[in-house]
């Protein structure tokens, strides 16, 4: 059996609009982010999930609540957090976003590496396989966990996942589908 995963990214934040890296800080949805989450909720209102998970960071929790309302109990899980940017937190993303590959194996100063995120997401996937096999779940989280899913479930290298990231092409879509075998 498989676990079907639909992955959603949180709405635009005030930090996103100011090109600041939020990392493990809560983050606040901007007016645009609130609008995006509400519109996404309308787009997926006919979908049914057995469970909805989200990162425990405020921007993801708020997005999940706006997307799904009271339709589901939203389960927060810290393993779904964004990468910890360490010293780069609240710094301009342009200072490092074009060098993300540098932080695959080496952590951000006083933060995490993308391999650390991969380990967190691999642990979360083991939990899903054990507890939600044969079911369909939704996740609302961040960039790094989604890239980790690309690596773990779509057999991409970290370089491929980073190079092909939808954010570079501005190719947003209302959810990405993954299969956990």
TrEMBL record:
The active site is at residues 10, 82. Gene3D superfamilies: Phosphoglycerate mutase-like. Transmembrane segments: none annotated. One of its GO terms (cellular component) is cytosol. GO terms for biological process: negative regulation of glycolytic process; regulation of pentose-phosphate shunt. Coiled coil: none annotated. One of its GO terms (molecular function) is fructose-2,6-bisphosphate 2-phosphatase activity. Pfam families: His_Phos_1. PANTHER family: FRUCTOSE-2,6-BISPHOSPHATASE TIGAR. This is Phosphoglycerate mutase. It comes from Palaeococcus pacificus DY20341.
